[in-house]
Amino acid sequence: MTKCRWTWMLLLGVVLFGFGVKIQVLKNGYKPFLYNFTTNACEYLKTNRNPLVRFFHEMIADYSNLNHSCPYNHDIIVEKLPITFVNHRVSVVLPVPEGDYLVHSVYMIRGKPRLELKVFCRIF
Protein backbone atom coordinates (compact mmCIF):
# COMPACT_ATOMS: atom_id res chain seq x y z
CA MET A 1 0.00 0.00 0.00
CA THR A 2 1.46 3.33 -0.98
CA LYS A 3 -1.32 5.63 0.21
CA CYS A 4 -3.50 5.73 3.29
CA ARG A 5 -6.73 7.31 4.50
CA TRP A 6 -7.66 8.17 8.08
CA THR A 7 -10.95 9.67 9.10
CA TRP A 8 -11.65 10.89 12.60
CA MET A 9 -15.23 11.86 13.34
CA LEU A 10 -15.58 14.69 15.84
CA LEU A 11 -18.31 16.10 17.97
CA LEU A 12 -19.61 19.38 16.62
CA GLY A 13 -17.86 22.56 17.67
CA VAL A 14 -14.57 21.23 19.05
CA VAL A 15 -12.67 24.14 20.55
CA LEU A 16 -10.26 22.38 22.96
CA PHE A 17 -8.32 19.89 20.87
CA GLY A 18 -4.88 18.60 21.82
CA PHE A 19 -2.59 15.73 21.07
CA GLY A 20 0.52 14.03 22.34
CA VAL A 21 3.13 12.22 20.27
CA LYS A 22 5.77 9.83 21.52
CA ILE A 23 8.29 8.25 19.15
CA GLN A 24 10.00 5.05 20.25
CA VAL A 25 12.64 2.79 18.67
CA LEU A 26 12.77 -1.00 19.00
CA LYS A 27 15.88 -1.96 21.02
CA ASN A 28 15.12 -4.86 23.39
CA GLY A 29 11.57 -3.50 23.61
CA TYR A 30 10.40 -0.05 22.55
CA LYS A 31 12.53 2.74 24.05
CA PRO A 32 12.05 6.53 23.86
CA PHE A 33 13.57 8.14 20.76
CA LEU A 34 13.86 11.85 19.99
CA TYR A 35 10.37 13.19 20.64
CA ASN A 36 7.75 13.01 23.36
CA PHE A 37 5.52 16.07 23.36
CA THR A 38 1.97 17.23 24.00
CA THR A 39 0.45 20.35 22.49
CA ASN A 40 -2.77 22.30 22.21
CA ALA A 41 -3.70 21.83 18.55
CA CYS A 42 -6.13 24.76 18.52
CA GLU A 43 -3.41 27.10 19.75
CA TYR A 44 -0.90 25.75 17.23
CA LEU A 45 -3.34 26.09 14.30
CA LYS A 46 -3.95 29.70 15.34
CA THR A 47 -0.27 30.72 15.69
CA ASN A 48 1.73 28.08 13.77
CA ARG A 49 4.71 28.84 16.05
CA ASN A 50 5.87 25.45 17.32
CA PRO A 51 8.61 24.18 14.92
CA LEU A 52 8.36 20.57 16.12
CA VAL A 53 4.60 20.43 15.64
CA ARG A 54 5.01 22.26 12.32
CA PHE A 55 7.34 19.50 11.06
CA PHE A 56 4.68 16.83 11.73
CA HIS A 57 1.78 19.03 10.55
CA GLU A 58 3.55 19.74 7.25
CA MET A 59 3.71 15.97 6.69
CA ILE A 60 -0.07 15.75 6.44
CA ALA A 61 -1.17 19.32 5.67
CA ASP A 62 -1.53 18.87 1.91
CA TYR A 63 -3.39 15.58 2.39
CA SER A 64 -5.84 16.59 5.11
CA ASN A 65 -8.56 19.07 5.93
CA LEU A 66 -6.72 20.09 9.11
CA ASN A 67 -6.10 23.56 7.70
CA HIS A 68 -7.89 26.11 9.87
CA SER A 69 -8.12 27.11 13.50
CA CYS A 70 -10.75 25.80 15.89
CA PRO A 71 -13.66 25.22 16.18
CA TYR A 72 -13.91 22.05 14.10
CA ASN A 73 -17.44 21.22 13.01
CA HIS A 74 -16.51 18.42 10.62
CA ASP A 75 -14.54 15.19 10.46
CA ILE A 76 -10.77 15.33 10.23
CA ILE A 77 -9.60 13.43 7.17
CA VAL A 78 -6.10 12.46 6.07
CA GLU A 79 -6.11 10.72 2.71
CA LYS A 80 -3.86 9.85 -0.23
CA LEU A 81 -0.73 10.48 1.83
CA PRO A 82 2.08 9.05 -0.36
CA ILE A 83 4.53 6.90 1.54
CA THR A 84 7.28 8.32 -0.68
CA PHE A 85 6.56 11.79 0.73
CA VAL A 86 6.74 10.51 4.32
CA ASN A 87 9.92 8.61 3.47
CA HIS A 88 11.51 11.82 2.13
CA ARG A 89 10.55 13.73 5.31
CA VAL A 90 12.11 11.14 7.65
CA SER A 91 15.17 10.27 5.56
CA VAL A 92 16.20 13.56 3.91
CA VAL A 93 14.57 16.46 5.79
CA LEU A 94 15.10 14.93 9.23
CA PRO A 95 17.44 11.94 8.81
CA VAL A 96 16.29 9.15 11.11
CA PRO A 97 18.52 6.08 11.57
CA GLU A 98 17.40 2.73 10.16
CA GLY A 99 15.32 0.65 12.52
CA ASP A 100 11.85 -0.27 13.75
CA TYR A 101 9.81 2.57 15.23
CA LEU A 102 6.54 3.19 17.00
CA VAL A 103 4.78 6.53 16.62
CA HIS A 104 2.29 6.58 19.48
CA SER A 105 -0.17 9.45 19.46
CA VAL A 106 -3.10 10.32 21.71
CA TYR A 107 -5.71 12.86 20.62
CA MET A 108 -7.74 14.69 23.25
CA ILE A 109 -10.91 16.72 23.21
CA ARG A 110 -11.53 18.96 26.22
CA GLY A 111 -8.57 17.30 27.97
CA LYS A 112 -9.94 13.75 27.70
CA PRO A 113 -8.25 11.14 25.49
CA ARG A 114 -10.57 10.24 22.62
CA LEU A 115 -8.29 8.45 20.15
CA GLU A 116 -5.08 6.49 20.58
CA LEU A 117 -3.19 5.72 17.38
CA LYS A 118 -0.12 3.49 17.19
CA VAL A 119 1.79 3.36 13.91
CA PHE A 120 4.53 0.76 13.66
CA CYS A 121 7.04 1.33 10.87
CA ARG A 122 10.46 0.28 9.64
CA ILE A 123 12.96 2.70 8.16
CA PHE A 124 15.53 1.11 5.89
From TrEMBL:
InterPro entries: DUF1091 (IPR010512). The chain crosses the membrane at residues 6-25. Keywords: Membrane, Transmembrane, Transmembrane helix. The keyword Membrane applies. SMART domains: DM8. It holds the Pfam family DUF1091. It comes from the Eukaryota. This is Uncharacterized protein.
